[in-house]
């Protein structure tokens, strides 16, 4: 098989710097693409060479449990374009390789409302719709109008409307019917030009000042997150390792009588429990197995300070899951994608 020179393929590539857990996995091939033409060529090459494909942004929601025997495509498609503008809103086409936080900062400088609560979430724009990133009462589905992607099999460029993306809590069609079937190339986002702040989250309302503004909310989100969450550049981690589980009303009542401090919020399907509280109360904070540890301040975050393997990371996660079933009869679901 002839390697197309323009793909700049790296063989036996080290992926340690392509995942924020710092797992030392390797890829048979790695290519960095900065145009849809190169992306299509890379997919074509993988197809002809019968190679599995893994798309990686910053790898901040990914656990690599083994070397990847295929082609890793690191996405660096860049550009932010205005596609429509009125007195009340602006609609943008943001390329998938843009850094999410830099895009949020840009929107705040332009005085556009809608993504400020999502400041400092690591990763690239192209991954944001995959798990419908969310924080402080806002989810990215609230601002996405459409998602553009290349179909991995037909190589056709497609656009999906917000509705068709089937967004839900940390979920979308890209994790289900279209799982591993697309490469997202751009996200279309509509932002408000008129003041529209979301201060539903009490800690944010407290910190955003007496007369909250777009800038003060953005600053407050950055402050709270910096205090609460370890910076992956300093301590390798993948953010929240487990989703908040939803239990039935009866199950919640049972747990509440046994654990009066239990944190739970009523939802349409029952009660959503705070996974961090369950793990903390089970005594897991700062506990370590094979060099992988639960963060000492934030029980939901698994840290990998010694760059241990993805299998070691998953061994700690499995031990936590078993304990949570034993104590609360609750099954925790891992949030990052496991490969
Ligand atoms: C410290 C920390 C805090 C975090 N806080 C939050 C938070 O508050 N809320 C939240 O929702 N998440 C949070 N996360 C998780 C993470 O930041 C998001 O899920 C982010 O969107 C992942 O982006 P990424 O580029 O790193 O994706 P990656 O980890 O590279 O990829 C994630 C998945 O998407 C796929 N993928 C990536 N790009 C594309 C593409 N262009 N096309 C098709 N598939 C693609 C990958 O194959 C993989 O399956 C946090 C993570 C960390 C480390």
TrEMBL record:
Cofactor: FAD
Reactions catalysed, as given in the entry: UDP-N-acetyl-alpha-D-muramate + NADP(+) = UDP-N-acetyl-3-O-(1-carboxyvinyl)-alpha-D-glucosamine + NADPH + H(+)
Similarity field: Belongs to the MurB family.
NCBIfam families: murB (TIGR00179), PRK00046.1 (NF000755)
Cited function: Cell wall formation.
SUPFAM superfamilies linked to this entry: FAD-binding/transporter-associated domain-like (SSF56176), Uridine diphospho-N-Acetylenolpyruvylglucosamine reductase, MurB, C-terminal domain (SSF56194)
Gene Ontology CC entries for this record: cytosol
Pathway: Cell wall biogenesis; peptidoglycan biosynthesis
Gene3D superfamilies in UniProt: 3.30.465.10, UDP-N-acetylenolpyruvoylglucosamine reductase, C-terminal domain, Uridine Diphospho-n-acetylenolpyruvylglucosamine Reductase, domain 2
Protein name: UDP-N-acetylenolpyruvoylglucosamine reductase
GO biological process entries: cell division; cell wall organization; peptidoglycan biosynthetic process; regulation of cell shape
Keyword check for Oxidoreductase: yes
Molecular-function annotations in GO: FAD binding; UDP-N-acetylmuramate dehydrogenase activity
Residue span, FAD-binding PCMH-type domain: 22-194
EC code: 1.3.1.98
Active site (catalytic residues): 170, 240 (proton donor), 335
Keywords: Cell cycle, Cell division, Cell shape, Cell wall biogenesis/degradation, Cytoplasm, FAD, Flavoprotein, NADP, Oxidoreductase, Peptidoglycan synthesis
Protein's gene: murB
Enzyme class per UniProt: oxidoreductase
Localisation per UniProt entry: Cytoplasm
Predominant subcellular localization, coarse grouping: cytoplasm
């Amino acid at each position: 098989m002839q390697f197309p020179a323009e793909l700049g393929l790296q063989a036996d590539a080290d992926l340690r710097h392509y995942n924020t857990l710092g797992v030392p996995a390797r890829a048979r091939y790695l290519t960095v693409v900065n145009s849809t033409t190169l992306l299509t060529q890379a997919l074509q090459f993988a197809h002809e060479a019968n190679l599995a494909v893994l798309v990686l942004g910053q790898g901040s929601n990914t656990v690599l449990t083994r070397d990847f025997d295929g082609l890793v495509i690191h996405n660096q498609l860049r550009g932010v374009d205005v596609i429509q503008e009125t007195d009340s809103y602006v609609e943008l086409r943001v390329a998938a390789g843009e850094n999410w936080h830099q895009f949020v900062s840009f929107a705040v400088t332009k005085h556009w409302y809608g993504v400020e609560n999502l400041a400092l979430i690591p990763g690239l724009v192209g991954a944001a719709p995959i798990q419908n990133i969310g924080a402080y009462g806002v989810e990215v589905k609230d601002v996405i109008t459409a998602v553009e992607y290349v179909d991995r099999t037909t190589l056709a460029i497609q656009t999906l409307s917000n509705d068709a993306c089937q967004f839900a809590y940390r979920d979308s069609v890209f994790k289900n019917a279209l799982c591993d079937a697309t490469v997202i190339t751009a996200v279309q986002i509509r932002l408000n030009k008129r003041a529209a702040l979301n201060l539903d989250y009490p800690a944010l309302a407290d910190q955003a000042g007496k007369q909250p503004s777009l800038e003060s909310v953005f600053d407050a989100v950055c402050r709270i997150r910096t205090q609460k969450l370890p910076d992956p550049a300093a301590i390798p981690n993948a953010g929240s390792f487990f989703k908040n589980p939803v239990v039935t009303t009866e199950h919640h009542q049972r747990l509440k009588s046994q654990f009066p401090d239990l944190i739970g919020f009523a939802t349409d399907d029952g009660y959503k429990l705070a996974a961090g509280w369950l793990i903390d109360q089970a005594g897991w904070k700062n506990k370590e197995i094979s060099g992988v540890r639960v963060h000492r301040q934030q029980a939901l975050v698994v840290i990998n300070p010694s760059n241990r393997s993805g299998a070691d990371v998953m061994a700690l996660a499995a031990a936590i899951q078993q304990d949570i079933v034993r104590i609360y009869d609750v099954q925790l679901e891992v949030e990052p994608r496991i490969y």
